[in-house]
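Hi Y.,

Following your request, here is the sequence exactly as I used it, all 372 residues.
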Amino acid sequence: MPDSFKNQIKAAEIVLPCSELDTTLEFFTEKLGFRINAIFPADAPEESVISGHGIRIRLKKGGTGSPGRLRLLCRNLANFADGETKLTAPNGTKIELVEADLPLVLPPEQQSFVLNRISGEAVWQVGRAGMQYRDLIPDRQGGRFIASHIRIPKGGLVPDYVHFHKIRFQMIYCYKGWVRVVYDDQGPPFVMHAGDCVLQPPEIRHRVLESSPGLEVIEIGCPAQHETWADPELDLPTAEVRPKRNYGGQHFVFHQVSQAEWRTWRIDGFEFRDTGIGKATKGMAGVRIVRPLKVAKPQECRHNGEFCFLFTLEGGVTLTCEGHGSQRLEPGDSCVIPAQLRHSLTECSDDLELLEVILPANQKAYLSALPM
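Below is the corresponding structure, written out as tokens. Let me know if you'd prefer a different format.
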């Protein structure tokens, strides 16, 4: 659509037919709280324009077409609807009353072993803002988790917009290239380089601005199906900077690989750099990058957590899992290891690096290493 045409649009209306204008108009104004903007002709009304709740409707007597369906988002629905959540207007329009802010629904745990290999036949599909997505957990662990390998092959400006997600947990790890992003109350736009990571706490407004050619990121969210909402009224960056702002009980994190400190991992012979996400989520989730020491001691272990995800960033490693044999993981391969499943990491290359995402973050959720 040419810009000159778009600039001429002043308003939008939904046209609904009705056989009896008076009774339909009374229903929309008295019962649903719309207000009359116009009615004509005065001596024998045939049409009326009403507005309310963010929309504008034209009721047209004798009009043709479907009377449609109207969804009204309500606060404290149970307190005023008296159990009546579906209504029918005199003109036949179906009215649905729903809660405006439904609580986040978390599917029950359905842990399973998942091995995902990257190859020339890997399926990439175009998602939001033209970005390409590869699904790393096809079974979504019963709908509880989603893991996506996302790329922007050509780079440049990203056709994104200010938006937010209704989620329990979400993180993004920059795997290759760089991306420029901006977050609500977190200062001016900044660049994430390969190895950097962010925690996107619930409903933080943000926008992807620009990327290098060949950008690749790993994104993990809980639950798998969550709503993404645009916020066109907010301009980013915001004037105020609040690094300690609370978003649904979590704090924003921007972890930079250049400032990383390495510590001993839960399995002997490995070390990790922590992203700070465990602290920012009050122990709900941990995100770490793991690498072997010069002398890695083969150990079998298991965990009793909710989720354990590994993505091979560099190098290679042999993963042996109870009931699933041994699998060589190369760059781009990933796995989900369910609770109580005995497993080991052996034959590590010197340049091995693994991205580990676990829930909960507390290592006490992981049982001691077992003798092989």
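Residues 12-99 form a domain with the 2,3-Dihydroxybiphenyl 1,2-Dioxygenase; domain 1 fold (CATH 3.10.180.10).

Thanks again,
Q.
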